[in-house]
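Re: beginner question about structure tokens

> Can someone show what the tokenized structure looks like for a real chain? I only ever see the sequence side.

Sure, here's an example I had lying around. Input first:
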Amino acid sequence: MKKITFAVIGWLVSIGLLIALAWSWDWAKTWASLSATNYWFLTIAILLNFIVVALKSVRWQWLLTDKKTHFKTMFKAQVIGMAGNNIMPARGGDWYRIYLLGKWEKISKAALTSITGLDKLFDGIAILALFAITSMHSTFPEWVRSSTLIVTGVIIGGLIICILFRIHHKRNIDIPHTRRGKISQLIYQLGAGMSIMEEKGKFGATLVLSFVVALLQISTLLAVQKAFGIILPVWVPVLVYVAINLAIIVPSAPSNIGPFEVAAVLAYTWQGLTKEVAFNVAFIYHVVQVLPVTVLGAYYYLTTFRHHRPKASKRASTSSA
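And the corresponding structure tokens:
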């Protein structure tokens, strides 16, 4: 019931934001802008987005310091998980990725849950670093600045919690699990997935990789801008990228439709673009991020299902014989 309520609230938020965005819309400007799109730049944007997915898969491998994993398996789980987030409410794809990696790589769900949290923390740190660097040379809307302060507090709090969980894990490593309470055991298992906190070299390398991932996502947005023939200062895509990542924290429909577009439009119109052109850039950038990955994720999911199905049928026919 709670999941249904959360999903309904998310859809209502998305629909409300899209209606507000489309109010007094000039469809002629919208179609004129779309018809002039350069699809070569969109192809580049799609390729850049898949490089981002690949690097995020590598980051997961690095975060799982105590477990040797295969890149192909990690990439497959990453794509299926991202596709799941695009079609399932409440970021259900993250939980399905945890399930798949637990099954394929024999990793505890608690440790994978920790990795999921760390993965998002590294993304947040990279976004805040870009915001700080860009703020030295440009200005941001007040709502972006205020939201960034809130996110900074959340990230600092998350890092403190991760450190405390890891300390708890180390202090209780020699204590049999039967002597630990339920909460203590859960914290112990979560702390098991945070060993990267103690490896300064790998922690630093993961931070650099997260920064590269963020820059590539901004480059993807820049390629979409180029597809529409839009030339703006280089820090503008950074502003839009930061604004989008702050906005998608808001509960919404799958793939963050609504908050994603509204944040991008607000950031672009603040720089002087018309609402219609700003929406086209935001919408196509969203499509570039969502559609190819979702199609590939569906393919991986269906081929995996097909791979296991014949075995089940064979067992069934053997049993009946």
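Each token stands for a local structural state, so reading them left to right follows the chain. Residues 275-320 form the longest helix (46 residues).
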